[in-house]
C-alpha cells in the first residue's frame, strides 16, 4: 500500500512540473532581454544547472534533521 504522502504527491506532480517550467521560462526570458545574441542552448544549460544546485541546497537544509 502506498503512503499517503506519495498519493498526495502523485496528485500534485503536474502542478509542480508546471511551476518549475514557468520558473525556467522566467529566467530564459530574463537572459534573452539582457543578452540579445545569446547562445540559447548554453543559457538553458546553465539555468538548469543553477536550479539543480539550488534544489540540492534546499534538500540538504530540509533533510539534515
Q: Radius of gyration over alpha carbons?
A: 16 Å
| Overall mean confidence score, pLDDT | 92
Q: In whole angstroms, how far apart are the ends?
A: 26 Å
What fraction of the residues are assigned to beta strands by DSSP?
A: under 5%
The major β-sheet equals:
none
Contiguous low-pLDDT stretches (5 residues minimum) are none
Shape: elongated
Describe this entry's structure for a reader:
About 0% of the residues are buried. The longest helix has about 30 residues. The radius of gyration is 16 Å and the shape is elongated. With about 60 residues, the chain is mainly alpha-helical.
Please give the structural blueprint.
Layout: H1 4-34, H2 40-63
Helix pairs in contact: 1-2
Quick overview of this protein structure:
By secondary structure, this protein is an all-alpha fold. It has helices spanning 4-34, 40-63.
Amino acid at each position: 500500500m502506498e503512503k499517503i504522502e506519495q498519493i498526495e504527491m502523485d496528485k500534485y506532480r503536474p502542478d509542480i512540473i508546471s511551476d518549475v517550467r514557468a520558473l525556467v521560462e522566467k529566467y530564459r526570458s530574463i537572459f534573452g532581454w539582457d543578452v540579445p545574441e545569446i547562445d540559447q542552448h548554453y543559457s538553458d544549460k546553465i539555468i538548469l544547472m543553477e536550479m539543480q544546485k539550488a534544489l540540492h541546497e534546499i534538500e540538504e537544509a530540509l533533510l539534515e534533521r
